Amino acid sequence: MTAPVFLADPALLREGTVVLDGPEGRHAVSVRRLRPGEEVVLTDGAGTGALGTVTAAEGKDRLEVAVREVRTEDEPRPRLTVVQALPKGDRGELAVEMMTETGVDVVVPWAAARAVTRWKAERGAKSLAKWRATAKEAGKQARRLRFPEVTEPATSQQVAELLRGADFAAVLHEEGSTPLATAPLPDEGGIVLVVGPEGGVSPEELAMFAEAGAAPFRLGPSVLRTSTAGTAAAALILSRSPRWR
Asked: Domain named Ribosomal RNA small subunit methyltransferase E methyltransferase: which ranges (predicted)?
């Protein structure tokens, strides 16, 4: 099994002996119960990781690590963004978790016209914080050095602007005539996928997105829930890209 990953201050990502403490140190010592001799990876979540060996685990939250190697991953190519309509309940966190583990680079929460859930004021801020915390935890679980960005919530107009700048853009829609599996994909640049809400993408939004360059595509013969469609589509796209070859 690969070494566990912990989020660390960028100042710790250097060769030599460093100390991981605070919440991440507590998780390493008290939850994971790491001991001297075990391997760990420290990361800033932005692409840089430090591989080292635990030399001491003290108290409840102090881990001493001898870092022997530091490396930085290149930006992923192509870059994959999923625009995720706001689902009901905790299905948003489930979607973010699975997409993070799959390899999505950016998640855009979308206030779709037919979405039942609405992020407003304090509730919206708490929901966004949960999505971001989920992305961080899932990034560590997936042994990623570069965690996905969860942006501020977007309106349909803002999503359309994002689609205009993509090298390939698609709206996942059950009535799409073209399978996503056969779509021509770029090896560079940015790919943007739009996942609608349980009530579907409205005709007005479909027209707006089509004008912005995003045609409707279907995944397969079955209809997936909004919380799982993004993961399935991301896996399909990444399996056809240089990133998974």
From this structure: 77-237
Amino acid, single-letter form, for residue 140: K
Q: What tokens appear for 164 in the block? A: 């205009």
Q: Are the CB atoms for 119 and 128 separated by under 8 Å?
A: yes
Rg (CA), the chain: 20
Taking residue 138's Cβ as centre, other Cβ atoms within 10 Å add up to 20
- Is residue 23 within 8 Å of 16, Cβ to Cβ? no
Q: What is the DSSP string of the chain?
A: -PPPEEE--GGG-SSEEEEE-HHHHHIIIIIS---TT-EEEEE-SBSEEEEEEEEEEETTTEEEEEEEEEEEPPPPSSEEEEEEE--STTHHHHHHHHHHHHT-SEEEEE--TT-S----HHHHHHHHHHHHHHHHHHHHHTT-SBPPEE---B-HHHHHHHHHT-SEEEEE-TT-SEEGGGS---SSSEEEEEE--TT---HHHHHHHHHTT-EEEE-SSSPPPHHHHHHHHHHHHHHTSGGG-
Give the span between the Cα atoms of 202 and 199, in whole angstroms: 8
Flag whether pLDDT at 54 surpasses 80: yes
- pTM of the model as a whole: 0.94
Residue 1 confidence class, pLDDT cut points 50, 70, 90: low
Q: What local confidence, expressed as pLDDT, does residue 147 receive?
A: 98
End-to-end CA distance of the chain, in Å?
22
Looking up tokens 């039942």 gives 116
SS (H, E, C) 146-160: ECCEECCCECHHHHH
The residues facing 56 across adjacent strands are 64
